[in-house]
UniProtKB/TrEMBL annotation:
The active site is at K348 (for fru-6p isomerization activity). It comes from the Bacteria. This is Glutamine--fructose-6-phosphate aminotransferase [isomerizing]. GO terms for molecular function: carbohydrate derivative binding; glutamine-fructose-6-phosphate transaminase (isomerizing) activity. Keywords: Aminotransferase, Cytoplasm, Glutamine amidotransferase, Repeat, Transferase. Catalyzes the first step in hexosamine metabolism, converting fructose-6P into glucosamine-6P using glutamine as a nitrogen source. Homodimer. It catalyses: D-fructose 6-phosphate + L-glutamine = D-glucosamine 6-phosphate + L-glutamate. Its EC number is 2.6.1.16. GO terms for cellular component: cytosol.
């Protein structure tokens, strides 16, 4: 039930800090350590490569999964769009593990790959929000998102839950115990709370940047690029502003031609190592007329920046940076007069290939 909320999407955005805390609880053992089922741990440890397969928002979460699995657990990881898998299947050698990420657990494109991979005899894990869903039943292992039902077509809390569960999976396989993920996720949950408490500020930004626009861009580097792709999907699917998420440095290789007087370009800057480079790209588009909006992590901000996010662990910034982009999509859609929860041409769960 959406209760006091005008739309499920807003309710689901608001629930994210609570979902994060619930996930940490669910994956904690009695000794207070993060834990995944032993059979799954063995299956992942036996793998020399992980193939993540997903669609849409879940696919975007997959890129963060790759980052965590490679950086924390040292396992080479590839990310595949499910509907493209059969045309360009990965070259498989050794002992792969296939990981399916799906909020609904019912997505036909992902299921088609799961069926094929099972025929090939490889081990499979589904990360899903729905216990007993098709992809969960058909895979060898399941990790649940514990996000509660997600009703709005635009996926929000499932994305942050997917990233959190992927981080937990990677951390439980990590040799280094110095990264206190439980503690760091707690900091993220609190930071999410403070962004959500100031959502009016984001409503104002939506009004200033997006109300009468036909197109927009999100740009970022590294982890911020992955979030930019998700941010763009969110904005386009409900507000119908044609939005691209772009690697900030790649704009000048062609796409910058689309920048006109007033084109909104929203830049995400959460990583110290690439902040100055992204700032350079912001200047490039600003000098060509773009209406730039900078969403930056505390500590990296400049006075002219529009939105400052509380500082969190550099590897977990996507969990936080996505929240204002969800709110921007929400408010832009309201202001443009469309149905937030039920965008045209879309269904919550896509059960056709
Ligand atoms: O249920 P799934 O996670 O498998 O769904 C995948 C996509 O269809 C889904 O994420 C879609 O892109 C959302 N509408 C995005 O907000």
């Amino acid at each position: 039930e959406k209760g006091m909320y005008p739309y499920y999407m807003l309710k689901e955005i608001d629930e994210q800090p609570a979902v994060l805390r619930r996930i940490v609880q669910q994956y904690q053992n009695s000794a207070g350590e993060l834990e995944i089922p032993n059979e799954l741990k063995q299956a992942v440890e036996a793998a020399d490569r992980i193939h993540i397969v997903a669609c849409g928002t879940s696919y975007h979460a997959g890129w963060l999964g790759k980052h965590f699995l490679e950086k924390m657990a040292g396992i080479p990881t590839e990310v595949h769009i499910a509907s493209e898998f059969s045309y360009n299947p990965p070259l498989i050698k050794g002992n792969p593990l296939f990981v399916f990420i799906s909020q609904s657990g019912e997505t036909a494109d992902s299921r088609q790959v799961l069926v094929k991979v099972k025929e090939w005899g490889y081990p499979t894990l589904t990360i899903t929000n729905v216990q007993g869903s098709t992809l969960s039943r058909e895979a060898n292992h399941t990790l649940l998102l514990h996000a509660g039902p997600e009703i709005a077509v635009a996926s929000t809390k499932a994305y942050t839950a997917q990233i959190s569960v992927l981080a937990i999976l990677a951390a439980t396989l990590s040799e280094e115990k110095d990264f206190a993920l439980i503690h760091e996720l707690g900091i993220v949950a609190n930071a999410m709370d403070s962004i959500i408490a100031e959502k009016e500020q984001i409503a104002e930004l939506a009004e200033a940047y997006l109300t009468d626009k036909r197109s927009a861009f999100y740009i970022g580097r590294g982890l911020d690029y992955y979030v930019s792709m998700e941010a763009a999907l969110k904005l386009k699917e409900i507000s119908y502003v044609q939005t691209e998420g772009f690697a900030a440095g790649e704009l000048k290789h062609g796409t910058i031609a689309l920048i006109e007087e007033g084109t909104p370009v929203i830049a995400l800057i959460t990583q110290a190592e690439n902040a100055s480079h992204t700032r350079g790209n912001i200047e490039e588009v600003r000098s060509r007329g773009a209406h730039t909006c900078v969403c930056v992590m505390e500590g990296l901000q400049q006075e002219s920046d529009q939105l400052v996010l509380p500082a969190v662990h550099p590897m977990l910034t996507p969990l936080l940076a996505v929240v204002p982009t969800q709110l921007l999509a929400y408010y832009a859609t309201l202001q443009r007069g469309f149905d937030v929860d039920k965008p045209r041409n879309l269904a919550k769960s896509v059960t056709v290939e």
